[in-house]
Structure formats: structure tokens, C-alpha cells
Amino acid sequence: MKYIVYFLFPFLIIIALLIFFNSPFEAPVEPENQSTQQKPPKPKKGTQGNTDNPFAAAEYRYQMISTTTKTRDKFIDLIGYRLDAVEYTKENLMPAGTDFGESISWVAKGPGNVGGRIRSIIIHPTVTSRILIGAVSGGVWKTTDGGASWDSKLDAFDPIAIGSMVIDPTDPDIVYAGTGEGWGNGDAVYGGGIYKSTNFGDTWTLLSSTTSSSFRNVLKMAADVSGNIYAATKNVTTKQGGGEYTLAGGLFKSTDDGGTWSKISSTDFSHNYFNPTDVLPYTASEILYAVNNNGGTYGGIYRTTDGGTTWSKVTSGLPSSGYRRITLAQDPSHNDTVYAVFESTDKTPAGDAGLKGIYKSTNRGVSWSSVTDPPKISSTGSLSYLGTQGWYDNIMAVDPFDPDNLFVGGVDMMKSTNGGSNWSQLTYWHSYYGTPVVHADHHFIAFDPVTSGTVYSGNDGGIYKSTNSGVNWTSLNTGLEITQFYSGAISSTGSTVYGGTQDNGHLKFTSGTDWDEVFGGDGGYSAVDQTDASVAYEEYVYLEIAKTTNGGSNWITSITGLTDATDPSKCLFIAPFSMNPDNSDVLVAGSDNVWITSNGATSWNASSGTLSSGEFVSAVTVVKPTANFMGFAGTTDGKIFKCSSLDPAVGIDTWTDISPVGHNGAWVRRIVTKPSNDDTLIACYSGYNITPPLMSKHVWLSTNEGSSWTDISGDLPNVPVHSAVFDPVLSSTFYISTETGVYRTTNAGLNWTTFSSGMPTFVPVDELVIQSGTMKLLAFTHGRSVFETDSPLPVDLIAFSSSVDGNDVLLNWTTGWEQNNLRFDIQRRKYAEGKDWITVGSVEGSGTVFEQRQYSFNDLNLQTGKYEYRLIQIDNNGNSSADHELQNVVEIGVPESYALSQNYPNPFNPVTKIDFSLPVSGITKLLVFDITGRLVATIVNEQLEPGFYSYAFDAKGISSGVYFYRIESGKFIEAKRMLLIK
What we know:
Elements: H1 10-20, E1 29-30, E2 50-51, H2 54-65, H3 78-92, E3 106-110, E4 118-123, E5 131-135, E6 139-143, E7 151-152, E8 162-167, E9 175-179, E10 194-197, E11 205-206, E12 218-223, E13 229-233, E14 238-239, E15 245-246, E16 250-254, E17 262-263, E18 276-281, E19 287-291, E20 300-304, E21 312-314, E22 323-330, E23 338-344, E24 355-361, E25 369-371, E26 395-398, E27 406-409, E28 413-416, E29 424-425, E30 442-447, E31 455-459, E32 462-466, E33 474-475, E34 485-490, E35 497-501, E36 506-511, E37 514-519, E38 523-528, E39 536-540, E40 544-548, E41 556-557, E42 577-580, E43 583-590, E44 594-597, E45 605-606, E46 617-623, E47 629-635, E48 640-646, E49 656-657, E50 668-674, E51 677-685, E52 699-702, E53 710-711, E54 721-726, E55 734-738, E56 741-745, E57 753-754, E58 765-770, E59 777-781, E60 786-789, E61 797-805, E62 808-815, E63 818-830, E64 838-849, E65 853-859, E66 865-875, E67 884-885, E68 890-892, E69 899-900, E70 911-918, E71 922-930, E72 935-944, E73 947-954, E74 961-969, E75 972-980
């Protein structure tokens, strides 16, 4: 959200601005980059070309994760569905035990120098090197060294969308963090309550009193001098039976440290258009409250002197109409003085240019007078510092050491040193105009409470610091991994990675954790040649594709013939394109139809007409290494189309509707083909299902090029699915990225578990890709940057089995590939005796190979009993890997007596094993009862032969508590107790 104009074309700028004035959320448009650039600047706002604004980004994400086309409206409470999905996953899909993949963990890959959107900053009042920031989709981060390094403090929780924070003035170690953003931007992340810390952010708890829909968008938190806490929350509309809607926002107050909350805003504010924007409590009785003016009648500043029992609207000296968002700022050194910034609904250069005015009160808001408006920002000469988006970024602060120093922030930051009589521009998001380069869109300004002249800005690019009252600025984003990615691509060796982000440009990784910016603004899809990483493609918004052939040193816009590019009426904000993995000259792209190039994007031709009337193409794929390329395209109403023979020459190809029967009607997010077999593909569907069955229709598998489909959503939660990856060796193992993290199946979609050790479990992951050379996964998250698996995928051990011949055991195992493998140690122990493992032999490994290897080992002359085996991999450096246990227990001989073992694990959730032995054959029952004696489950009821037996009991769908399991076989009856904890 940065603004520059081409001064040679002022009349084009005015026309472009006027076009967007009919929508109060629209921002100016941006130009194309038509020439090769050595180090390309960020896209320019306020000129002709593409729209790059928070409203467009917001609308894109909302529509993407919303429900089906016919119900895709703002009355659907998406956060409610998300919270349900998180709770369901916690109860049912967390990994229960050790398997081949449990040793795999995710590690952060950066960017550690970019940052992301920050809406709150807390500085400790005495130890000012201790700072907390709240990232809108990245959680709470803490520094203890003044911003030189940062640690994430909220990864174990969900949601991690932080909209506002406040420190308790009576105890500086107590901090409250309100979740949810809710400023009208579609990429805004809904919250789900208020967190509290009693040790300045090291640990947090979610206040149970704030889990209702009233606290899903906490726009502003504040505290009065007595330590009472206030939360201004946005209305959340939920669809009820019969089409009724409920409204829950308002001003809430807690007098018991967050234990309980009462709504103190006027009942008149329950109007549909009411939304709070700010709160400023003087005392427990005297409070100022700003209300958005979307509806016209209820907007303005309200004041109470009796703690909220009665409110009066303040009008003296303030505008009565033509405004929307209001921001309040108190003078810390003169508490009676307060300022209010009014965003204007008039964005025209000849009118308010986005700023209605700045107003000042010296009597706690009883009456007001106007302050001189800051000049237009130097990037345009025609717009205020708020630009056209004061609804999104609008902040003001007063220097606690000098009340004449006033700071205001929007697209850029302004400062007055004489109480608002004169203003100067402090920052500009680009270096063309000589002012310090600080990222655009300022959301928070904070002052060091001890050191005069030290000020911080939280913006869309992270956190910046000035030690001379704003003259110079330094980025403090090192290690602050909170970037919101839309997509990503990687070279075959993993040495080069590209990713498109929300308002932090298109980024490139080559080493370490720092990433370079390729282009600014919003970055879309990416592609990297898998045989020559110097060739890559990236995308600015609305399908404006650029290409490099020298590793990113130079880029050229490559949309010749692609006439829909840059047209918001034809393309999604982040429009899809895809490169043929076997031929980097062949690409397809989607607008409302499909486009193809076979000459490396030198020119494009239309491959289809409009695929689905009134809809956009949301996913495209092209495969086959030579002529007669095969293409797939998905649309925003859930349809999938196939072209069996794409012709790059001029002319329209034949596209056939192959949509899965019964799909959910949401966006098709990705269509992924299996690298070793193009006939097999997975289609990922976004959207929350709002009609039963809820937990289905998000992941579909076809093994015949889409002629038929199978819903493999299995036991996944009801959650939008963004991308998928086929395991390169295990045919039934797939990985998916979703709005609530990464999941894995090992049985072709029958069952799923989370696959997120090492990253925030429920962070949205927009793109999942695999490095073909190293077999590591990369996850591009929307809010927590990029993660990479710390070791190759768990495909090394394909199979591990045993067979018994008398008193001898033969072990067989197969690896899919190996890396630096010296040997396998084979270990054994007596089953269920709790004894240590002993090494009974070793087998030499194969070093590093990327093909299957078979191994075997004989364990001879064992005594009667039950045994467990495991493999330990030892690398060439002598390091041992995690063990791989044989899944079954090996039985030697016939048991001498009946026995029922204690279940394990115990306590358990939700699966446990129950073992028993039978010395003779007979009808055997294994039953489970609850504490009242009611039969809960029958595990076994059949004729069994003598032997050792092990059965799994799955308590999914059963509530926590004490249960009893009992065996009956012949005259043998025995029972034991087990504990289920969810």
C-alpha cells in the first residue's frame, strides 16, 4: 500500500481515482512494469494499472476461504467454523504414537528480515529493552535486547491473530492480548478471545470469559488508572435458523483482571452498522469512545461520566457527516488533552483527499477544535497521508516528553513539532523523495517511556525504530518471522526459493534466513525451472507475470497477448499460473478463461473461452513433457475442466467439465498431479461447508485423469484445503496444507493426522511444495513465514515385517531411499516387561541412495514368549536416528497360561492397545464398560486359537473418563481399568 504518481499523467490519475470513489474501501490503482529492471522498485500506487490495496487483498482471502458461491456473504461466521475445526483436530487428529514420521520436525526458514503486519507494540515501562509486538496472523513476539532478536510466544495456541494489546498500569508484568483484526480488510484474520500473561509475555492463558463471539475481533484494548481493562470489539454476524442474524460487538469492561466482562456501551449502538474504533478511559467512570460512521446515525465520539450507564454523543467542534473511522490519542503529559483523527469518505484530491480532519480537546472530550491538516504526501501531491485507506491504517500518538510533538500515521507518517500548526513528512515507503524508507501502512506508534526521542512504528512491514524523534529509522525485523505468504516455489536442489506475500513483495531466498525482495506490493504465484534455477517466473496482482533468465538479477514483464492480465474484472487478485514441470517454456494461466504459452512467456494465446459463467479460474495445471500437453483448470464455483491436448498455437482448445460429483461449490485451490504418474491427481477445495455432511468434499483423488473422483477427505475437519503433495515413494501417503495447518494421510485419505511438529499447529498454510532433489517439504504460511522439514520426508522405511520359523525370527525391511546411512542396529526386548532394549545384531547400510533397498536379519534360538523389535539407523558420523519399531509383537511358542495385560498407553487419547494370551482355543470376548457398567464397545467376540493377541481400542467419539475392559474365555474372566483423557 504505497503511493507514487507519474507526474506526466495527472489527468489519468484523477480519472483513476474518480472511478473508485463509488466504493469507500477502494484504493488507487497501480501501473504495469513494462521494462527490464536491475533492482525493480515496488509497484506504484495512485497511477493507472493494477489495484493493490488492502480491500482487494481482503476480499480475495475472504472469498477464498468462504463457503459456496450462493452463500458467500459477510453473514457467515467463518471463525466459528475455524474454531470447530481446531477443536475437532485437537480431540481426534493429533498423532497418538510413534510411527515412521514422528522424527520429522519443521524448522523456520525465514524470511528473518522482512516482517509483516503489526497492530500493537508494548514496551516495558522500566526495562525498555523488553518489548512485545502483536502480529495480525503471527502471534505475540518478545525481545529482551531491544529488538536485536525475537522469540515467538504464542505458537502453541489458536488463534494467533493479535489485533490489540494493553499493559496493566498497576502491574507492568501483566499484559492482555486481544485477538482478531477486523478493520474491513479481507485478509484480516478473525480471532477468538483475549489472552493474558503475568510474566510480560513469556507464557499466556486464554481467558475463558472471552471465548464467545463478542470477542472475535478485539479492535482496541485499554486500561484505566485503577487497572480496569476495556475491550472495544467489532460486531460479528452469525447466520441463525430462519435467516436471523445476531450482533455481538461493543465496549466491554472487566474489573476483576479479565475474569468476567460486562458490556457497557449503549444499547443504541447495537445497530447493524455500529462498530467501535477506539476507546480512551480516564477513570472507571469517565470514558471516551469512538464509533465508526458506516451507518451515518451512530458514528462519532461518545462520552460517559458514570462508567457507561449513560452516554452522550460529543458534537461541539466535530464534523457531523462525511467521515468514517475515528482514532483517539491522549497527551500522556497532559491527560485532559486528547486528539481525534477523522477519516473522510471523500478521497478526491479536490476534496478531503482521505482526511476529514484532526481535532483537539483540552477538556477530556467535552468540546473540540480543529488542528491544521498535514500537507499532502510527497509521493502524490494530491492525497493525504491516509491516502484512500484511513479505514485500514489510521494512527496518532503524542510524544510523552514533548506535547508539541505530534505523530500521525497512515500510508506514510507525518510529524508536527508545534502542536499541529505545521507538519512535515517523516517517512516515505520508497526512497525516491529523500525521506527515510519505512514500510507503508502504519498501524501503531509507541514511545520509549524512559528515553526521549525514541519512537517505534508498527506497520505492514513489521517494526521500525527511531532514536531521534523520527528523523532516521531502523528496521528491527531480524528474526521476526511473521510474513504472510500466498504461494511459493523451489528449485530441485532447494538452493533457490521464491514466494509471493501480502504487501511485502515477491521474495527470493538463496541462503541463511534473509530473503531479497524481487518486486514490492503484493506478490502472487511463482515457478522455478527444475533443471535451470536461473529461469523463474513470478507474478504481481491480477496475473501480471514477469520472467528472469539470470537468477533474478533482471526481470521483464511477460504478458504479451495475455490481454486479461492487469484487469480486475477478468482476474482474481492473486490469479493462478503454473509451469510444466518437464518443460519450463510451457505455462498456463487463469483469468476467467485459460491462457497458454510454449515459448517461455514471450507470447500468450487463449486456450479457452469463459469456463464457468460469472466465475474466475482459481487453479491451473499443465503436464506431459512434449506436444499434446494436458491441462486442468478449476474455477471459483468448484468446477474442474480438462483439456487432453493443449495446442499453444492460436485457437481455442476443447475443455471438458470433469467436476467431481457432489463437490462443495467452493474454490478449487489446487489441482496437483503425481510426479511419477500424470493420470493420478488430487483436487483441493477451499471453503467451509455449511450444510451436512460438513467433514467432506475438500480433497478429491482421481487415478484416471479426472474421469472419476473419490472423496478422500476421510476424517479431516471442515476446513479449507489449499494445496497437496504426493509422497515421492509411499503411494498411499499424501500431505495437504489447510487453513488450520498441515495434515498427512498414510492410507490414501481414509484417516488423517496433523503433521506440524515444530511449527504453530494451526497456522494457515497457503502452499506446500517438495524439493525433488532432497525430498524435504516447504510450507508457506499466511502469517508465520516459511517452514522446512528438518530432514527428508519419512519415506526411508517403506516396510518392516517379521516371520517366525520355530524358535527363529526373520526380520525383513525395505527403504525407499537412504542418506548417509552407515548401518542398522537391530534391537530386541521381551514384550510388556519394561526391560531395556538390547542390540542383537547389525546390518550394513547403503550410504546415500535414492532408490529402494531390501534388508533382512535372522534372530535365532529364542525362548517361548513375546518379543518386540526395532531398528536404529546409524549415519557415517556415528549419530543415531529415531528408532523404527516393528508394528506387531513377535510370538514364539504357545502361552502357558491365560493373561490380560494393562492397556498401553494409559491414560490414552484416543487409541490404546490391549494384549492378552490364550493357552487353549475357545470363544473369547473382550468388552469395554463405562463406570456405570454400561457396555461401551465389543472389541472381540469370536473363536480364537492359542496364542498371543493384541487389539487396538479406538475411543474416538467417547467422552473422557474411567473405563473397564474385561476378557472372557472359557472359565477365565479378568478385568482392568483404563483412563481416557481428551
